[in-house]
Amino acid sequence: MPSSEPAPSFARALVLSGGGARASYQAGVLQYIAEVFPEAHFPILTGVSAGAINTAHLANHTGSFRQAADDLARHWYSISVDQVFEPESAMSLIRRILGKSVNRKHPSEAVLQAEEGQALLDTAPLRVFLEGILKPVEGELVGVAENIRQDRLKAACITATNYSTGQSVTWVQGSDIENWQRPNRVGIHTPLTVDHVMASTALPLLFPAVHVNNAWYGDGGIRLTAPLSPAVHLGATSIFVISTRYSRSRREADEPMVLGYPPAAQVMGLLMNAIFLDIQDQDANHMRLINDLVRRLPPQKRRGLRPIKLFILRPSVDLGRLAGKYELKLGGALGLLTRGLGTEQTQSPDWLSMLLFQEEYIDRVVQAGWEDARSQHHQIAQFFDDSVLTMVNGGEGT
Prior knowledge:
Layout: E1 12-16, H1 24-36, E2 44-48, H2 50-60, H3 65-78, E3 86-87, H4 90-102, H5 107-115, E4 121-122, H6 124-134, H7 142-149, E5 155-162, E6 168-174, E7 180-182, E8 185-189, H8 194-200, E9 210-212, E10 215-218, H9 229-233, E11 238-242, H10 250-254, H11 264-296, E12 309-313, H12 319-323, H13 332-340, H14 350-353, H15 359-375, H16 377-384, E13 392-393, E14 396-397
Parallel strand pairs: 1-2, 1-11, 2-5, 6-8, 11-12
Antiparallel strand pairs: 3-4, 5-6, 5-10, 7-8, 9-10, 13-14
Helix pairs in contact: 1-3, 1-15, 3-15, 4-13
């Protein structure tokens, strides 16, 4: 999807996808880039779901890129399950469900309960964690404005889903930014806050919805049909994507993850990947196709369209399958739910890996990101070489 909008020369964008705990992979990649390419600069930052946390940190950090990347990795190394959520007790969940059934005759009470934002997990600890590392002033990420003022940042954006309208809403803070509107997705210029980050990371049903500007919002990956579009709208000439989705070989794709009837955990994992990760690959293929068509046109016939350099770095190991090697110690309603869904019956518990905020797993995933970036040093160097217009990603022209 080349852009027809005017853009500054070599405006690089960093696009960070979701994946829950798997987003720690992005910290490892960024730490390697900052170590080896200290002059690396991404004036455009976009993030969705757990990637919104990493985006907010980078956009809000007023130090060097190396300092921001090192701090991001340090925060991921220090995080634990109890800093992200508190699972509701099984009995509390049962009482609440029964209570709602009783209160169906009393709409006002039902509305009040809905406004409490109840879900299987209480993410109040995550808000405390984010406020501790982002240090907002009255909720606002003040470092973002400072970086824009210092011309270190052109724009940062975070995407969430409006549960009331079904629209994908991208909140953007930057200089010379105009709102945009496309079918089922809009871009709104506004100062970024902790609420925006919390909304983008609110996994449906598991995490409570977040109230922002008189509407309830949830995870940004639900309706974002064009994950690369915010970067394009903001004038990116090259886009660096850090995905958390492992690309299986044909042999691996044909290998069954379960034997017999699929447990609910396997089905949920497929749904999570389809909602949060698969669409990014489709959007990238769409961009490659249009890039190729634009390059075939003589400049005078392009009508302002321009190819966009695209590079996607993804895990060399299946982070979902890797999660199966670690035990997720959960009690309460979530522990009861995971056991009942048959998580142990699948070799790739993808949906569970999103909640695996445990030291051993996070350490391994961050290290995997660092190692994968090192193994693709040459491709990364090409990305930062503005004289190279065509990138290679896993053997595919981009």
